[in-house]
Specification:
mainly alpha, 8 helices, 2 strands, elongated
Length: 249
């Protein structure tokens, strides 16, 4: 358990460094990754692209070599066409296929590491449409999700606590963001029940963030049997259009 706690601390430190580098405009800003989970998914996608490019280039060169042997040389135009074919292949496989953003229904599939990565990737693509305070919470949440994913790897996937955590991260968190986005933009700054939808979203995300941090700490301490998610994260639930309603437990 001590080793796992140390690994969790290391993940948190590295993720915070990644986050700080993003904010400073460093080399990770191009990806905009909020955590290691989404960064790993992007890296796998990039490696797959590079692999397809390499295969295409090797195939073109092999075909050119065969044509040269059969025709006793391909000449200047043959060399030129080969270069064009290589450039076209590199361009095509660099641009396509584009990385698929997980849908809400796909987020909670697979093991917990995959769930965390998909959640981070989905949140990254929603972040530009959120108010700045909420977007900042999302950016900081990547550190917590990485640490939580690490802790969950040692817990049986069918454990009740894991199911509750998956519901929090894979369902409630994206649902909170998605419900906010259903509210027309011109209504998001209007106060209802003492707060605007922008403020309600930020507050709800902060509650979820605190809950994730609490669960991670309990798991790191080996308190699996005592783990109880108290559902403090759903003070608000957003409806479509002008209507918002509070939901208290």
């Amino acid at each position: 358990m001590n080793d796992l706690t140390k690994d969790s601390d290391r993940i948190i430190q590295e993720s915070r460094a990644l986050r700080d580098d993003n904010r400073a405009g460093g080399r990770h800003r191009r990806t905009g990754s909020i955590g290691r989970g989404s960064a790993d998914l992007k890296m796998k996608h990039m490696v797959a692209k590079l692999t397809r490019i390499a295969i295409a280039v090797v195939g073109i060169l092999a075909a050119t070599s065969v044509a040269g042997l059969i025709l006793n040389g391909i000449g200047f135009w043959g060399v030129l066409m080969t270069l064009f074919a290589i450039v076209a292949a590199v361009f095509a496989f660099s641009a396509f296929p584009r990385m698929k953003v997980p849908t809400r229904s796909d987020i909670n599939k697979g093991d917990t590491r995959q769930m965390v990565g998909r959640t981070e990737l989905w949140l990254e693509h929603q972040r530009p449409a959120l108010p700045p305070p909420a977007a900042n919470v999302i950016s900081d949440m990547g550190v917590q999700l990485d640490a939580l994913g690490l802790q969950l790897e040692t817990v049986p996937q069918d454990h009740p606590a894991v199911r509750e955590v998956r519901k929090l991260v894979g369902e409630v968190l994206p649902e909170t963001v998605d419900s906010y986005q259903k509210i027309p933009a011109h209504l998001r700054g209007e106060k209802r029940a003492g707060a605007t939808p922008d403020e309600q979203l930020t507050d709800s995300l902060q509650k979820i963030s605190r809950e994730i941090d609490s669960v991670t700490r309990q798991l790191a301490e080996g308190s699996l049997d005592d783990l109880a998610i108290k559902h403090r994260y759903l003070d608000y639930r957003y409806g479509e259009g002008e209507n918002t309603s509070t939901e208290k437990e």
